């Protein structure tokens, strides 16, 4: 039997070292573990592919792009050490702007395939490529979710244009089949499945963010579809195409084996539990050490309990961490209201507030945007947030759609500047009650300024009512910078707790 092997990573999000930045505990993930794993599985008939979202997500990546942005990132350097054959781009690879992205593309030691991301009118790399392995012609092309302009800061994608991912895949597959007559076609797609694998029912709003199901149902000539973006663990045949997707933070490796004689395809997801590659870690140790020093810098202190011990309770009862973050946003923007989410894994702040606490609590490189909203739009916005909850076994719980196919706690915002009740037993769309500002009921034609992050302001999370609302102001500094400056200026954080949200059955 002759075998072709495809090793695929996705959504590594800046994780190199095999430990948590929040508490220093070891975890089964990181590029250094994946390198050891890849080295053990790779031979001359293997392709190693990355599917994007590598530059953003860890405290190390945040530190690098705020302290040493003009140099090659440690993530890029480590990817070069892994000797990838091809890389794709993910939506978060645009988070630090065009200069950072192009430095990554030009410095990593392999071609980038991303046919539907046009830079100055041209695709990033070739539209597709042909590799001959074990005497077989393999066609490969990459695409990224075309929803990026809905999320990304405009100046970060000033010279980019994004073509619909499905249409690009359809066009390129037809071109490859007509011109190249390959033995196998592989699509590397930084996007996910918008429908349930078994039932075909939509699992999210059909916005075009994820088009994997559409690709699988309409492009039968694909042999392998490597997905990403959703942080899901998938490794199976769907229709006639073998599909993989891996969890986030370099915790899994997809291994796909193609039997060239029978054309059968098998695969497995391998957890990143191998010993971490010491040479890789040594090569970027200096920046990692500086990052650790930076993370342990004290910004100030607090006399309040701002630690997150139970995320569910912190959302149902609105942790004062959210109150603080909203106060900072309102202070920075002079807005009437502010809202933000408690991100997955957030730890909050200890008595001595460090950068480690901060970047472990506010994990995305978001900026601040102010929207002008009417009372009607505000109610629509809050009703969308209220969909986060459901009643399960007589208790308030999280709606399944926010847990599967991927956790979406970041799509539940808590508001300051108004008070309201979420009555979960009411029908969706009619759950917000007693919406008031300063004790006065808010009317549909009232107008307010609302400070939110740029992701939400662009409609991210299916909040189209905010996307359509007029923009009053845009701030370029990251939320982490705004929060850090606020704490540094005051030294001690103290305020009267605000319990303005009730979540009831």
Can you tell me about this structure?
By secondary structure, this protein is α/β, with parallel strands linked by helices. It folds into 2 domains: about 5-290, Metallo-dependent phosphatases (Purple Acid Phosphatase, chain A, domain 2, 4-Layer Sandwich), CATH 3.60.21; about 300-505, Alpha-Beta Complex (5'-nucleotidase,  domain 2). The protein contains 15 helices and 30 strands. The strands form 8 sheets. A 6-stranded mixed beta sheet has the order 6-7-9-10-12-11, covered by helices on one side. Helix 2 (about 60-65) crosses helix 8 and helix 10 (about 320-335) packs across helix 15. The radius of gyration is 23 Å and the shape is globular. The model has no long low-confidence stretch (mean pLDDT about 95).
Give a nutshell description of this structure:
By secondary structure, the protein is α/β, with parallel strands linked by helices.
């Amino acid at each position: 039997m002759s075998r072709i092997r495809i090793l695929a990573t996705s959504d590594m999000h800046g994780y190199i070292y095999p430990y948590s930045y929040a508490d220093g505990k070891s975890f089964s993930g990181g590029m250094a573990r994946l390198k050891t794993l890849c080295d053990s599985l790779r031979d001359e008939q293997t392709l190693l592919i990355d599917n994007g979202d590598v530059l953003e997500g860890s405290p190390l990546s945040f530190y690098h792009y705020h302290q040493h942005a003009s140099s090659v990132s440690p993530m890029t350097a480590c990817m070069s050490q892994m000797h990838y054959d091809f890389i794709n781009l993910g939506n978060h690879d645009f988070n630090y702007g065009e200069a950072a992205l192009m430095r990554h593309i030009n410095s990593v030691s392999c071609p980038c395939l991303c046919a539907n991301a046009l830079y100055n009118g041209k695709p990033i790399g070739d539209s597709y490529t042909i590799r001959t392995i074990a005497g077989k012609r393999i066609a490969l092309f990459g695409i990224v979710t075309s929803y990026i302009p809905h999320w990304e800061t405009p100046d970060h994608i000033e010279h980019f244009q994004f073509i619909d991912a499905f249409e690009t895949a359809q066009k390129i597959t037809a071109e490859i089949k007509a011109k190249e007559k390959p033995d196998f076609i592989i699509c590397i797609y930084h996007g996910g499945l918008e429908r349930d694998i078994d039932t075909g029912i939509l699992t999210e709003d059909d916005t075009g963010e994820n088009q994997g199901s559409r690709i699988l149902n309409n492009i039968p000539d694909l042999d392998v579809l490597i997905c990403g973006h959703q942080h899901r663990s998938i490794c199976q045949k769907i229709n006639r195409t073998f599909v993989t997707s891996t969890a986030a933070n370099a915790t899994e490796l997809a291994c796909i084996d193609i039997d060239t004689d029978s054309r059968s395809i098998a695969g497995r997801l391998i957890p990143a539990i191998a010993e971490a590659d010491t040479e890789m870690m040594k090569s970027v140790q200096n920046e990692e050490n500086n990052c650790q020093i930076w993370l342990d810098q004290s910004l100030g202190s607090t006399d309040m309990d701002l630690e997150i011990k139970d995320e569910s309770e912190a959302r149902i009862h609105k942790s004062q961490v959210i109150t603080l973050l909203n106060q900072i946003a309102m202070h920075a923007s002079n807005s009437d209201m502010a809202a933000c989410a408690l991100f997955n894994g957030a730890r909050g702040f200890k008595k001595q507030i460090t950068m480690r606490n901060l970047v472990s609590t506010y994990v995305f490189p978001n900026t601040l945007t102010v929207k002008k909203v009417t009372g009607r739009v505000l109610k629509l916005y809050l009703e969308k947030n209220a969909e986060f909850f459901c009643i399960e076994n007589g208790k308030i719980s999280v709606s399944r759609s926010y847990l599967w196919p991927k956790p979406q706690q970041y799509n539940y915002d808590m508001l300051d500047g108004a008070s309201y009740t979420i009555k979960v037993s009411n029908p969706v769309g009619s759950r917000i009650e007693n919406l008031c500002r300063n004790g006065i009921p808010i009317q549909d034609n009232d107008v307010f300024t609302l400070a939110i992050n740029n992701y939400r302001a662009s409609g991210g999370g299916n909040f189209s009512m905010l996307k359509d609302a007029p923009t009053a102001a845009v701030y370029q500094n990251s939320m982490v910078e705004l929060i850090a400056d606020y704490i540094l200026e005051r030294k001690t954080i103290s305020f009267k707790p605000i319990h303005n949200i009730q979540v009831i059955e």
